[in-house]
Amino acid sequence: MAIDFTGRTALITGASSGLGAEFARRLAARGSDLVLVARRGELLEAQAAELRSLHGVTVTPIAMDLARPGVGAELRDRLAERSIAVSTLINNAGFATYGAFIDEDPDRIAAEIQLDVATLVDLTRAFLPELVADGTGALVNVASTAAYQPLPGMAVYGASKAFVLSFTEAIAVETKSSGVSVLALSPGATRTEFFDVVGTEAAAVGGYQTPEQVITTALKALDKRRTPASVVSGRANRLSSTFAALAPRSLAAATAGRMLASGA
To answer: What is the DSSP secondary-structure string of the chain?
Structure first.
């Protein structure tokens, strides 16, 4: 049965562009009020105005840098001050670094781990009690096809997404009787600003999907009678992820490293 988002509130991180912006459009179209969080306040304000006009929903934009400790409690308290209760949380914010680990900037790596792993866990812990108390919404953590094998050339990013996948699947079991649909969403290469931040499209492996295709995959999974704990977006991505999961780890790592190096 489809989730009824009408009149409830979804909190979306990384909401100013890409997958986060598409999540916002699709949930607003289904009647959900929104809290949109990202660093770029002007983009959020424009996005909020458009969604209010199109769908008549309440949209609260919050400009915030999430790549720092303690943001979960800070954001929860800011929403509590406005009497905003969240029933759905979409942890979408994140970025990747590319290149040999030995050459990476230590500060950039630390920020990547903070945002992709620590902040995601912090936000989940801060808002999961609200989600469970409501019992009608969803927790979506955006992982990646990078989660399914070690990823030479993007070692930290692959490991961070493997954490997100494992963490989310565990939370899905822990909360299976709560009424909350818990999903790890794993897209492959997607036409967003992701590769602009990475600095190269050489980090893209396989064919591109659009944000619309990825979010359609997520919503179809959430609307199933029994939401799967994880879903990979795109048939080719599902096949490659299945191969990586079944192959010996050394072979999967070597194959992924060759594909990433060649930009295949």
So the answer is: -----TT-EEEEESTTSHHHHHHHHHHHHTT-EEEEEES-HHHHHHHHHHHHHHH---EEEEE---SSTTHHHHHHHHHHHTTPPPSEEEE-------S-GGGS-HHHHHHHHIIIIIIHHHHHHHHHHHHHHH-SSEEEEE--GGGGS--TTSHHHHHHHHHHHHHHHHHHHHTTTSS-EEEEEE--SBSSSHHHHHT-GGG--S--B-HHHHHHHHHHHHTSSS--SEEESSHHHHHHHHHHHHS-HHHHHHHHHHHHHHT-
Which amino acids are annotated catalytic? Answer: 157
Express each pLDDT in 169-220 by its tens digit: 999 999 999 999 999 999 998 887 665 666 556 555 668 899 999 999 999 9
pLDDT at 254: 86
- What's this model's pTM, rounded to 2 decimal places? 0.92
Phi, psi of 73 (to 5 degrees): -65, -35
